[in-house]
Design goal:
The chain is an alpha/beta fold. 29% of the residues lie in helices and 22% in strands. The radius of gyration is 24 Å and the shape is globular. Pfam families: FMO-like (PF00743), NAD_binding_8 (PF13450).
Length: 494
């Protein structure tokens, strides 16, 4: 009995996977597709993370889809609203009917002779292995492990008599009302948890080894508020979207060109929102330049309001050991705690841990070069989505999905079956694809695809430039090899 076959197999039913299916449905209506989702629900990150206050780390006018206007007043949205937005997008377009839940893709093998991927998935609900063939494999599974967050081993941890939790797997039965909470970490998750938990807890302390840059943004977008009653959403949305894109790009470029001035600007903004005498330089002045790591955005300064209220505090120190009643710091100070939240980061797992094989040869992902930040050198008919590090994830996801559709239509129009990025011998790897100095990147740098010195093998973290390259640029260049297999995918599975 032949295996089930689709033209395009999408991996992942999160924000980018649902967006990929929507683009495919609109731009390649004749293509059959399926979506394999490892978990049991639509939403990806926004379904997994359920910790208090979980929210977007970008404004929703750029984190939302280009084709589906974000119409709510909140610019920085909570996780539930984002999850419902993704689910609604899938439901209204009939995409949800194409999703195979509990299908974790573990292996994909390409045959050049047949122009065919044979994809193997493990069903978490039954334990069985299933296989499907496809002509194009489009991976939208993000780059971190869903089943396990990063938590370092702390001395004395077993002696602690309270409860230790990781935000990635927030327990439904955790009641922190009236309790003393210590949140270990300084990134976006930690600065979200501090104000969200301080309302019910007796006190919340954010314990950070080193500071992050924090910038307060309005919870609603003033321009969007003004345009909402004047223009239809389909008109107002792109205006606000481009305004935010250009503002973000300007801020990023300033950070790269005059980091000292941006550092001073950020410090001034933080200082203005904290009590007089607060040690700003100790707790909010990182040793690195702005955008060497992602900035932490807080809506309406909620982090600073929590600190001013006295129900939250920030301590910058290192952990000596856990004690039965809390954490003793290297300075000798002890933080009493009933609950410790380890907001210590993520574990990277590029492409969901998928094993790739091309014509019998395993692909070492860490030794590949990324073509236009979305395909791997030497791997045919394969694309992946990894969003921007200096802007919203979905801006890049939309561009990648649109480009994949252009590629598929180009192949069909020329009677071809295969497209493979192949770098010339002169192009050498220079940097990892995700060019951040964050701990989760540095811990897994060998697992990531690499960048080359110039386009199309290098990312420039520049959305307007990528719009021209990926929506208007030529599909044929010296790096892309097009061909036709002797036996097509549909003939192979007939």
């Amino acid at each position: 009995m032949p295996l089930e076959h689709v033209d395009v197999l999408i991996v992942g039913a999160g924000l980018s996977g649902i967006g990929a299916a929507a683009h495919l449905r609109a731009d390649c209506p004749g293509k059959s597709y399926a979506i394999f989702e490892a978990r049991g629900a639509i939403g990806g990150t926004w379904d997994l993370f359920r910790y208090p206050g979980v929210r977007s780390d970008s404004d929703m006018f750029t984190l939302g889809y280009s084709f589906e206007p974000w119409t709510e007043a909140k610019a920085i949205a909570d996780g539930k609203s984002i999850r419902e937005y993704v689910q609604r997008t899938a439901r209204e377009r009939g995409i949800d009917r194409h999703i195979r839940f509990h299908h974790r893709v573990v292996r994909a093998e390409w045959s050049s002779a047949e122009a065919l991927w044979t994809v193997e998935a493990e069903r978490s609900d039954t334990g069985e292995r299933v296989r499907m063939t496809c002509g194009f494999l489009f991976v939208n599974s993000g780059y971190y492990r869903y089943d396990q967050g990063y938590t370092p081993e702390f001395p004395g941890q077993s002696e602690f008599t309270g409860r230790i939790v990781h935000p990635q797997h927030w327990p439904e039965d955790l009641d922190y009302t009236g309790k003393r909470v210590v949140v270990i970490g300084s990134g976006a998750t930690a600065v979200t948890l501090l104000p969200a938990m301080s309302g019910d807890a007796e006190h919340v302390t954010m314990l950070q080894r080193s500071p992050s840059y924090v910038l307060s943004l309005p919870g609603t977008d003033p321009l969007a508020d003004r345009l909402r009653g004047l223009l239809p959403p389909k008109v107002a949305y792109p205006v606000v979207r481009w305004k935010n894109v250009l503002s973000q790009l300007l801020f990023f470029q300033l950070s790269r060109r005059v980091p000292g001035a941006v550092r001073k600007l950020l410090r001034k903004g933080v200082s203005a929102q904290l009590p007089r005498g607060f040690e700003v330089d100790t707790h909010f002045s990182p040793s690195y330049d702005p955008w060497d790591q992602r900035l932490c955005f807080v809506p309406d300064g909620d982090l600073f309001k929590a600190v001013r209220s006295g129900k939250a505090g920030i301590v910058t120190d290192t952990i000596d050991t856990f004690t039965p009643d809390g954490i003793r710091l290297s300075s000798g100070r002890e933080l009493e705690a009933d609950v410790v939240v380890t907001a210590t980061g993520l574990n990277l797992l590029p492409f969901g841990g998928l094993e790739l094989v091309v014509d019998g040869e395993p692909v070492e992902i860490g030794k590949t070069l990324a073509y236009k930040g979305m395909m791997l050198s030497g791997v045919p008919n394969y694309a992946f989505t990894i969003g921007y590090t200096n802007a919203s994830w979905t801006l890049k996801a939309d561009l990648v999905a649109g480009y994949v559709c252009r590629l598929l239509n180009h192949l069909d129009s020329r009677g071809l079956t295969t497209c493979t990025p192949v770098p010339p011998p002169s192009v050498e790897a220079t940097d990892p694809l995700i060019d951040l100095k964050s701990g989760y990147v540095l811990r897994s740098i060998d697992k990531l695809p690499k960048q080359g010195p110039a386009a199309p093998w290098r990312l420039f973290q520049n959305y307007p430039r990528d719009v021209l390259l990926m929506r208007r640029g030529s599909l044929e260049d010296d790096a892309m090899r097009f061909s036709r297999a002797a036996k097509t995918a549909k003939e192979s599975v007939a």
